[in-house]
Amino acid sequence: MKLELKKFHLKEKIDLQKKDWVLISIIIFVAGLAFLLHHFIGGKGAGCVTVKVEGEIQGVYSLAEDQVIEINDGTNILEIRNGTADVTGADCPDKLCVNQKAISKNGESIICLPNKVVVTVDSSENSEFDAVAQ
Ligand SMILES: [Zn+2]
Question: How many domains does the chain have?
Answer without folding.
Answer: 2
